Amino acid sequence: MDAIPFWPTISRNWKLLLTVSGIVGIATIVCVKLFIPKEYASSATIYAASTYDVNKIVPDQKFGGDEETQSLIQTLKSKIVQDSIIKKYDLVSHYEIDTNKKEWKTKLAKEYDGRIDIGTNQYDAIDITVQDTDPELAAKIANDIVLIGGTTKEKILKDNVGAIVQDWKAEYTEKQKEISELQASLHDAGSKSTKGDYLSMENLEAEKLRKQFVREINKLGYLKDVYEKSKTFHEANTPAYYLISKAEPNYKKVYPKGSIFGLLASFAAAALLTVLLAIKEQLAKKEEEQITISSDELVG
């Protein structure tokens, strides 16, 4: 079958195409506004805080790096936060989930994930964006995701640092005991040493113990410093995040875009009508050719 020439069809029927596509576009926009619920989006922005590292304590370092950011994002996306938000705002009813169906939990999770986006922006901050038919609810959910997720993360961090503090405390206490025992041994060795004879076994043993005592005292100083720093960090209640901007209700809809739907519908209608008209013209032309051929054969 020969290719169908569309341009001649368009040039001959441009008024009809323009009218039909315009009507379809306007009708689509009206239907979108009347039948598709409007949705609004609200966003909160936070920075992850730096976490505890005994070897990298920088007093004025507040914002965390990639590791802290990704860890906080995972907490914000966690099932703990999701379940808390769903329960608090009764999203099962709000999303109109039929709990009588076997797959209702899967559908609920899919609806939740589809309406909530959590990720980093160009400044490496974390944006929590919630899309909903209720602009005020969208803002409340975004802010509570930050609050619940942040509180959960802070508890995890505090528990982790608390365990580290206990480990350093145990090591520090053990080193104190070792030094007390070493001090007693050093005292005994000193009482047995002989004056003037530095190469005697007693004097050599006492000197060995003195050097060991100095080394252990230095280790004790390090352990004490680390223990006190970790204890101070643990007691400081360092936050897991820093709030940059709180989510506010945004009454400008983000979906559906009636103009975009209308434009797409207009193009689709025009394209479909062009194809149908071109096919109709081709069939009419072939039919006319057949009639002409038949007439010639009769005359002949």
Would you write up a description of this structure?
With 300 residues, the protein is an alpha+beta fold. It folds into 2 domains: 1-36 and 256-285, no CATH class; 37-255, Bacterial polysaccharide co-polymerase-like (2-Layer Sandwich), CATH 3.30.1890. It has 9 helices and 5 strands. The longest helix has 58 residues, at 135-192.
Write the topology of this structure.
Blueprint: H1 6-12, H2 14-35, E1 39-48, H3 66-76, H4 79-88, H5 91-94, H6 104-115, E2 116-120, E3 126-132, H7 135-192, H8 201-235, E4 241-245, E5 253-255, H9 258-299
Antiparallel strand pairs: 1-3, 1-4, 1-5, 2-3
Helix pairs in contact: 2-9, 4-7, 7-8
The CATH architecture name of the largest domain reads: 2-Layer Sandwich
CATH uppermost class of the largest domain: Alpha Beta
Instruction: Outline the biggest β-sheet.
Output: 5 strands, antiparallel
DSSP strand tally = 5
User: What structural class do helix, strand and pairing data support?
Assistant: alpha+beta
Structure at a glance:
The chain has 300 residues and is of the alpha+beta class. It has 2 domains: 1-36 and 256-285, no CATH class; 37-255, Bacterial polysaccharide co-polymerase-like, CATH 3.30.1890.
Task: Please tag this protein with its features.
9 helices, Bacterial polysaccharide co-polymerase-like, 10% strand, alpha+beta, 2 domains, 5 strands, 5-stranded antiparallel beta sheet, elongated, 300 residues
